[in-house]
């Protein structure tokens, strides 16, 4: 298939990707649109205007989700939903999430231009706070519409002490009306998401597009080690209760456990660490840090978690520390719909497009959606596998091919759900 035979409008898609990237731009290519920030609101408003330009009915719900609806003959039929997110990491790139929203919008706009009339409603959604970096718990918007929020989520505070509830109200939402924004059980038939791969597999195989088979189950923990502060110049080394030394050993232990089997897709990361009292000449008394452990094999992940917790107990006892562990996220691996994958396989062949099938290490909004409906994902190649970094890059040619496959899959799915 050549780019000249694309059904979707490559130029329009590229223009919107570049224009959205100007909102929250950092440096030459980076983006910072933290969830529920002013930049996030500007981005949501911009995409909302494009949805309305495309003829969709657009609204922002009380979870902060942007929803564009393509209403058809049977408004009560289960919805075919497409989308992703446009919030970013604080040091993020232009494509993570954004191509899934703008690609989905391009799909529906192209359907309207091609006079394709689905018998079921189609919704394009930019979910709020997929990333989870601001309030340390992601997939907020998608879990919100599914009634899956947990106790205390609105009280979570960012680094400046702003709670999620305060941020939602500032964003224009009303947390007291959450129930009105929830979707009834059975009202969503299927969910499709396009995303950059965020890994090197497609590039290594010289392929522009991949069909996702499933998403690894993420385990997020917050660990707090507490010892005793003292003068860095006078407390002998054997007498110290240094929480940072204990944390360092736990971090090394996590890295070693996750690296034991080089052929396994297990990954473990400590991405955030706070030290108290944070002074160069005081022995650290308290350290809190995050643990991110993922695997497509849930039993293996459980075994590694158990061994990590044992290590933390041993290290804490060795250094005279107390250890407190809280669980922020715990999800099992979720596998994509075979029916949707079959459609993608067939349409890829029709396009003359070489693809491969691969699992996703990162979680996505699809992870939450997988518990209420069938789902499918398309991955787009990204340079050097870089993501969550301003150097993140995918070509418009690859993004357009992914969007074309999303378009063709959506048309088939809309026909299937008549």
Would you give an account of this structure?
Helices cover 34% and strands 22% of the residues. It has 418 residues and is of the alpha+beta class. The strands form 3 sheets. Strands 3, 4, 5, 6, 7, 8, 14, 15 and 16 form a 9-stranded mixed beta sheet that branches. Strands 9, 10, 11, 12 and 13 form a 5-stranded antiparallel beta sheet that branches. A hairpin with a 5-residue loop joins strand 3 and strand 4. The radius of gyration is 23 Å and the shape is globular.
Per the CATH scheme, the topology name of the largest domain is Aminopeptidase
Question: Helicity range of the residues?
Answer: 25-40%
Number of strands: 16
Report the biggest beta sheet as strand number plus sense, adding barrel if it closes. Answer: 9 strands, mixed
Mean pLDDT score: 95
CATH superfamily of the largest domain: Zn peptidases
The count of domains is: 2
Any idea of the CATH class of the largest domain?
Answer: Alpha Beta
List the helices and strands and how they pair.
Elements: H1 10-21, E1 25-26, E2 30-31, H2 38-53, E3 57-60, E4 66-70, E5 79-85, H3 98-113, E6 122-127, H4 140-145, H5 164-171, H6 178-181, E7 188-196, H7 201-204, E8 209-215, E9 217-226, H8 243-258, E10 267-269, E11 273-276, E12 286-295, H9 298-318, E13 322-330, E14 334-335, H10 338-351, E15 355-360, H11 365-369, E16 374-380, H12 396-416
Parallel strand pairs: 5-6, 5-7, 7-16, 8-15
Antiparallel strand pairs: 1-2, 3-4, 4-6, 8-14, 8-16, 9-12, 9-13, 10-12, 11-12
Question: How would you concisely characterize the structure shown here?
Answer:
By secondary structure, this protein is of the alpha+beta class. It has helices at residues 10-21, 38-53, 98-113, 140-145, 164-171, 178-181, 201-204, 243-258, 298-318, 338-351, 365-369, 396-416, and strands spanning 25-26, 30-31, 57-60, 66-70, 79-85, 122-127, 188-196, 209-215, 217-226, 267-269, 273-276, 286-295, 322-330, 334-335, 355-360, 374-380. The longest helix is centred in the C-terminal third of the chain and has 21 residues, at 298-318.
């Amino acid at each position: 298939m050549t780019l000249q035979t694309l059904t979707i409008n490559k130029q329009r898609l590229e223009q919107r990707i570049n224009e959205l990237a100007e909102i929250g731009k950092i440096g030459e290519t980076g983006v910072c649109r933290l969830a529920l920030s002013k930049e996030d609101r500007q981005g949501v408003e911009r995409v909302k205007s494009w949805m309305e330009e495309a003829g969709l009915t657009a609204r922002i719900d009380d979870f902060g989700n942007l929803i564009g609806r393509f209403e058809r003959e049977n408004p009560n039929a289960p919805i075919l939903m497409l989308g992703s997110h446009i919030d970013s990491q604080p040091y993020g790139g232009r494509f993570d999430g954004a191509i899934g929203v703008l690609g989905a919008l391009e799909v529906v706009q192209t359907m309207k231009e091609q006079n394709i009339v689905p018998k079921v409603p189609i919704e394009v959604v930019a979910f709020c706070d997929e990333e989870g970096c601001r309030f340390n718990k992601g997939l907020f918007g998608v879990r919100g519409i599914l009634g899956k929020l947990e106790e205390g989520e609105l009280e979570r505070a960012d680094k400046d002490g702003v709670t999620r509830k305060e941020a939602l109200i500032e964003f224009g939402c009303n947390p007291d009306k959450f129930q009105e924004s929830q979707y009834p059980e059975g009202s969503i038939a299927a969910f499709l998401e396009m995303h950059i791969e965020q890994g090197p597999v497609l590039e290594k195989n010289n392929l522009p597009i991949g069909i996702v088979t499933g998403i690894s189950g993420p385990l997020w923990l917050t660990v707090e080690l507490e010892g005793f502060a003292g003068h860095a110049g006078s407390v002998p080394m054997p007498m110290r209760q240094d929480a940072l030394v204990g944390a360092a050993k736990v971090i090394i232990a996590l890295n070693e456990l996750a690296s034991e089997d080089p052929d396994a897709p297990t990954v473990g990361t400590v991405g955030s660490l706070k030290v108290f009292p944070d002074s160069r000449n005081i022995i650290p008394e308290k350290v809190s840090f995050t643990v991110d452990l993922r695997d497509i094999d849930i039993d293996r992940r459980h075994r590694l978690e158990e061994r990590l917790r044992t290590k933390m107990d041993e290290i804490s006892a060795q250094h005279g520390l107390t250890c407190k562990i809280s669980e922020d996220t715990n999800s099992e691996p979720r596998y994509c719909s075979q029916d949707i994958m079959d459609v993608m396989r067939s349409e890829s062949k029709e396009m003359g497009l070489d693809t491969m099938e691969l699992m996703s290490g990162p979680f996505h909004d699809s992870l939450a959606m997988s518990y209420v409906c069938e789902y499918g994902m398309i991955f787009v190649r990204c340079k050097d596998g870089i993501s969550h970094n301003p150097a993140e890059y995918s070509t418009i040619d690859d993004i357009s091919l992914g969007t074309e496959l999303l378009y063709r899959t959506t048309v088939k799915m809309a026909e299937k759900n008549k």
